[in-house]
Amino acid sequence: MPTTSPISRTQMTHDHRILNFSAGPAILPEPVLKQLQEDIWNLNGSGVGVLEHSHRGKEIDAVFEETTEACRTLAGITDSHEVMFLQNGASGQFAMIPMNFLPPARTADYVITGTWAKKAFEEGGRLGQVHCAFDGSETLFNRVPGDDEISLSSDPAYMHYCSNNTIYGTRFETMPKVDCPSVVDMSSEMFSRPWDYTGHDLVYAGAQKNLAPAGVVLVLASKALLDTARKDVPNILSYPIHAKNDSRYHTPPVFPIHTMGLVFKWILAEGGLEEMARRNEAKASLIYDAIDNSGGFYIPHSDKNCRSVMNLSFKTNSPDLDKKFLEEATANEMSGLKGHRSIGGMRASIYNAFPEEGCRRLVEFMNEFARTNG
Fold it and tell me: Is 116 a catalytic residue?
């Protein structure tokens, strides 16, 4: 019987990578990936890889401390907020937030601007009284509301919204101005631009879109909000318990947390949130210009006044042409461009780590495809 020889680390390493436009799990910075190759083998000269260390050992203590400090620097938050690294992803927060902060006699308000915001609203409704403060479904979520369109209930426990809508390609330019605790899902744009993190009582982001691999969610919560948390919540679902235990109430997902810390350090080394915003705006402009200057061949989904810079959704006027576009893009080493099933078409997700040259290559392909198929 033939045998298979073990694959060496050298054989496993190669430089060829195609363009990854996936909405998530998504692209990571290449310097981070290269560092992880070493850290899996040997973390900081300890002789043991990051996947093998005890989550209570000094090496992982350092991982948590450095990741937390870099996060605080990027977000501009002081000790008024706790930083937590939790599990269950953003969808888990849909339940944890009302479980912790929605008392029986109160109402939670939700701004529904897409699929995930709607799921958060529905999950909240399973646990308490909720109110829809805005519903964008009539226009297939192609825009976000202005402050004057958000209709709050009389005394909401909190208002929940999603700052960037991954599927539909829309975003809030600034946080809504409301007179109640503000909770925001920033999963697909966390740390892609300067943002008023201190102005929110709770910020959360599933990591697999712009921060790290799947398996961890970043949560920033004000101590003032944590002080109001209900006491009848199971410990494993209690934000105060996780904060008190340094996100290690139980064994945490150390590898994605370590990766997140490396991403934070990469962002800081590259110039911080201002530089990320500059790069991301430039990348998105290349693609939106190609859409807008296509003579109607490409049709954007989002309203021009609230276009996402992270997720760009568009289509042609024919599902058959969309299919052909995707097939030819794949043949040209562009992956992950298929739009979400709810709206079809195409979607280019160009997170912080996505290179500008990749956007230029997509634009060249788009222009040629329109020329030969228009």
Answer: yes
